[in-house]
């Protein structure tokens, strides 16, 4: 129900945003294409816009010089197509900022124009796309009788707005306030749909929680909308359960923490931009784009589960380890005494980074499977010292890892732009479009941590081919590869004494429980790390402790596990110099440097196209 839209950018006639584009908000009022609930948005509409900076302020005491302007607002209870005044208004009004909505009313809410968005307070405009079941008895709103009586309309949206306004008036930053309202409401009403949209004319904050949300940013403009128009703007879908903070300069998307999960204090204050203003400052150098379709988890995970768990022996691709918890656990693994690969690779990077910077003179560093980007700092330091680096472009399936790493790097590298992409490098290896001066310079692609060892031989061949086709003549590739070594050292690295790797391995079952409503009992499986001598690889497996049946209702699977039956969750291939060099050569990639740590446990390869 409802569709809404916000715009920031150069001043344009409002008609250019609301009625002119093919499949505009106007058309979405009677023919939405992506709306998940309700059909026609005929129960009113509204829009708010901001006066141009040189217009006289309407209320000088409230509008200090340079402060946010108070928006104008127009709302009607009729369908948007039934207002004869609208075409003239939209043709003659122009603005640099707009928030507009068409409404499909929820049963039990008022139908007059006071219930049409946008709601307004000071510089803020607000709209809600969604519904809160049993909203009149919503607990814990923090509203007293006076605030309840002052609700602008008898509707769930007006109630949400009142709870949000309280926070904004107390000075809580916009993003944090939106996230707080969504989390508390979702905790009390788990089926509530809470796509909220807020602007002060300088930044946009929005949540996607239960319905669709898209954004398009280009040429100094940004649009955020329930669904894309067909104007040709570069629309990107926002993942469900996300907070989006946008300015014309950058878009920042962060996962909304599930209800009840407390923020980690060490990250909150300095790493999370929490208002459009913060976003403006921080995200002018940090952007995070999502290339995964919104239904990626639903569709790709379903396909992998049907494919892998339906097979004999059963298997799952390792990328599903890396939800937010999995990414955290992997970070813990890298600090374990038994897990030598991270330390060995770090050692090589420290020794060779100046040489890598001198040889590549990279203006852009693109990293695949970047995770925490912790080791990458060595490269960033060297390339910055060499004076060539303009932009760091990490790419990972884990949005939370990218978000944490990206915001920390922006803080610690004041001149660096960080252009992060959430994508699956096996499905869609499109490197981020360079947006600054680095367009005209060499790139260094980094693929560290021996993540290449998680790909089996056919996957690796395909991936090398893909990399080669993506690289231009002056690009280089830095590849981290773990080497064949003593079996005991290897097994210990994947089966540590503290059980962190076991928790990481079992996390994939947790992902299936959460995403597909599966009923895996984690205690009924044992973690195993096995050295496969013939294939020269570590295999991480989960072994069923007893005979059991596991149900995965979302894919209609019922799996019988025999006692001792194993499920393969990760391959970690260990390499030898000759075979890896030959494999790369077959893909048109030439190894220019082969560096190892002092104990020759790990190799770092500098590779150029043939
Ligand atoms: C073994 S960790 C390595 C992390 C980091 N590069 C390091 O060296 O510490 C693998 C990383 O690749 C990411 N990843 C795994 N499969 C991926 C895929 N198909 N597409 C994109 N990222 C992937 C994971 O989210 C994780 O951050």
What does this structure look like?
The protein is α+β, with helices and mostly antiparallel strands and 610 residues long. It has 2 domains: 3-284, 4-Layer Sandwich (Glutamine Phosphoribosylpyrophosphate, subunit 1, domain 1); 364-483 and 574-609, Rossmann fold, CATH 3.40.50.150. Helix content is 30%, strand content 27%. It has 17 helices and 27 strands. The protein has an 8-stranded mixed sheet, sandwiched between helices. Strands 3-2-4-1-10-9-11 form a 7-stranded antiparallel sheet. A 6-stranded antiparallel sheet has the order 5-6-7-8-12-13. Strand 19 (443-447), helix 14 and strand 20 form a beta-alpha-beta unit. Helix 5 crosses helix 6 (174-188). The model is unreliable at 59-67 and 259-282 (pLDDT under 50). S-adenosylmethionine (SAM) is lined by residues 319, 322, 327, 330, 334, 342, 369-371, 375, 396-398, 401, 424-426, 448-449, 451.
